[in-house]
Amino acid sequence: MSPFFSIIIPVFNQKKYLMDCVRSISAQDYNNYEVLLVDDGSVDQSGEICDRIAENDKRFRVIHQENQGAAVARNTGLEYAVGDYVLFMDPDDLWGKNKLLSEAIRVIEIEKCDAIIFGMKKKYGDNEITEEWLDIFSNEAFKRSSDRMQYLMEHNVFQSSAWSKIVKRDIIENGGARFVPGQMAEDIEWNLRILQLIKSVSVMPEAIYVYRQVKKSASHTVSARHVKDVAEMIKKYAAMEDGERKKYVFHYLANQYLQWMTMTNYVDLNEIKSNLREMKQFYYLLDYDWYPYVKKAKKQGRISLKFRYYVVYLNLRKFIQKRIHEMFVRVNWDIFRLS
């Protein structure tokens, strides 16, 4: 029997937490799945650990490749996947519930949906879980909604993570939804592609995914390249032609634009001057305000004011630039408290 779920895990130097990740999958009370461990050129014995896991459990398959980054590793997993639905995990994360797959099956059988979204918990290193997201989501209100995707965005549920979604593999394959090799924050654009492809979506309103925040993890580092890649993605999709999915794309872009403005706080301003000037033209995206943080930013009027000053005074004296920068940081920490 072919597996119903394909779980894709890109692995690079994660020997410390990999077994925690694997155990949370093995503990599931539903067994018809495959796990694709894509060893992306690890040099810390992670590859050997993957091999031992596969030797002991035939549901796990290992693909070894030269280091090419998480995007390519995920794409490799998609090439080998045969399940009806696809999930992604990061090797330092885990599932906090052993009924994720069995409950997903029940949702799929009832709703025949293209995708399911579930919530997450944050875990700081080896410490206890301290934060949850999607814990107060109203599933009944969601089901009654005339536009489910709009409802998800209005409640900050459709986010840019690949690991918070279960997606029908035919949708991914027929739509050519692949991660962009070498791109920083590759999840953002992949979700834009998925957003244009899925026609029906459901929710499991629990914080199931345990997202571990580890120092020096690639997902917690902002660089000038990161800022530039997100800017290029926004420019690319802001030029999208009219279509039935355009409104969803633009509301999603507005949220990413706001987060891009936040990311600029953590890089050398001299490296992104051209980006700052160029990205000012997309300020209109904030009119697409389904996401609560976009709506809040507009209501307060702070992001608008600080961003315009930020661009105008970019070349003025350093102490003015520094002060505006600090003000911008304070505003954005309030806005992104839960992101």
Provide a descriptive summary of the structure in words.
By secondary structure, this protein is of the alpha/beta class. The protein has two domains: 5-219, Alpha-Beta Complex (Spore Coat Polysaccharide Biosynthesis Protein SpsA, Chain A); 222-335, no CATH class. 45% of the residues lie in helices and 17% in strands. It is built from 14 helices and nine strands. Strands 1, 2, 3, 4, 5, 6, 7, 8 and 9 form a nine-stranded mixed β-sheet that branches. β1, α1 (18-26) and β2 form a beta-alpha-beta unit. α8 (186-197) packs antiparallel against α10 (246-263) and α13 runs antiparallel to α14 (318-335). The longest helix is centred in the C-terminal third of the chain and has 18 residues, at 246-263. It is globular, with a radius of gyration of 20 Å. Residues 311-321 and 323-339 have low confidence and may be disordered.
